[in-house]
Amino acid sequence: MGANLLILDRHKCVLFTIGHTSYSFLVAGLKKSDFQILDEVSRQNLFRNLMRDGFSQEAIEKVLDEIGEIAFTGTCSRSVLGTMNDMSSIIKWTVQDEGGLLNVDIVEMNLKLNRIPLGPLDYKFATD
Questions:
Q1: What is the pLDDT of residue 80?
Q2: What pTM was computed for the model?
């Protein structure tokens, strides 16, 4: 899983992207203590986002098992980096268009992020 720090309206946010599926979600308003348990923060938010996307409990548990232990390192995957750059741009435009981070429905934005056709997925959605 890739993670990218974004500063939006002076709030620390992290964009997470699962490499093989390009499934992405933003976690906004993180505190210093959250970064010490970023593995747990990412898992909890992945679970919540997959539930909101309509995945079954069984499917979510399968995804979490496949991911295994989450380690945050550099990546050489140009596909993941490209997807994260595209998602970061969309998030920044959304925040600007909505008049600031506090006006953005993060849940709705995360749902929309995964319903954008992606080149690395042969122009299918990450939720597929």
A1: 76
A2: 0.86
